């Protein structure tokens, strides 16, 4: 069983527990490969917070583009962050926005690794969300 803190020491809270569950059946090599790919693709909650704050200075919706929600990003730009109300709501929920995105990325990473190395990374927790 791989130690998630050894591979991804920057994780904390709910994300740490979730990723630990995903890495439960991996050996050290698989966990190392997963950690490298996941770290490159995940988004830090602090970055989402900063991009959300930029919404008050005329750059509303940047955080939605970074999270892969292009439609909402365009809507935020055209409506000034839904008249700043959407930006304020996202400012309160920035950690959950980052967490949901990172969980989606973790599952995509595991599925990508399973497709690349079939049979070696058979992990029962690879179901998609």
Automatic annotation (TrEMBL):
Task: Extract the coiled-coil ranges from the record.
Answer: none
Domain (TM2): residue spans on this chain: 47-92
Q: How does it sit in the membrane?
A: Multi-pass membrane protein
Keyword terms, alphabetized: Membrane, Transmembrane, Transmembrane helix
Its subcellular locations are: Membrane
Q: Where is the signal peptide?
A: none
Record's protein name: TM2 domain-containing protein
Pfam families named in the record: TM2
Name the residues that span the membrane. 48-67, 73-94
Species of origin reads Algoriphagus halophytocola
């Amino acid at each position: 069983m791989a130690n998630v803190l050894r591979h991804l020491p920057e994780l904390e809270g709910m994300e740490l527990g979730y990723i630990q569950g995903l890495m439960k059946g991996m050996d050290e090599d698989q966990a190392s490969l997963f950690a490298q790919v996941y770290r490159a693709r995940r988004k830090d909650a602090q970055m989402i917070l900063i991009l959300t704050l930029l919404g008050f200075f005329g750059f509303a919706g940047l955080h939605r583009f970074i999270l892969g929600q292009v439609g909402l990003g365009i809507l935020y730009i055209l409506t000034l962050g839904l008249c700043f109300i959407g930006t304020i709501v996202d400012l309160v929920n920035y950690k959950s926005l980052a967490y949901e995105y990172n969980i989606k990325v973790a599952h995509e990473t595991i599925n990508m690794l399973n497709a690349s190395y079939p049979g070696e990374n058979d992990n029962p927790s690879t179901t998609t969300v």
